[in-house]
Amino acid sequence: RRERQRFVDKNGRCNVQHGNLGGESSRYLSDFFTTLVDLKWRWNLLIFLLTYTVAWLVMASMWWGIAYLRGDLHRAHDDAYSPCVANVYNFPSAFLFFIETEATIGYGHRYITERCPEGIVLFLFQSLLGSIVDAFLIGCMFIKMSQPKKRAETLMFSRAAVVSQRDGKLCLMFRVGNLRNSHMVSAQIRCKLIKSRQTPEGEFLPLDQCELDVGFGTGADQLFLVSPLTICHEINSKSPFFCLSQRSLRSEQFEIVVILEGIVETTGMTCQARTSYTEDEVLWGHRFLPVMSLEDGFFRVDYSQFHATFEVPTPPYSVKE
Question: Please, are residues 161 and 282 in contact by the beta-carbon 8 Å criterion?
Answer without folding.
Answer: yes
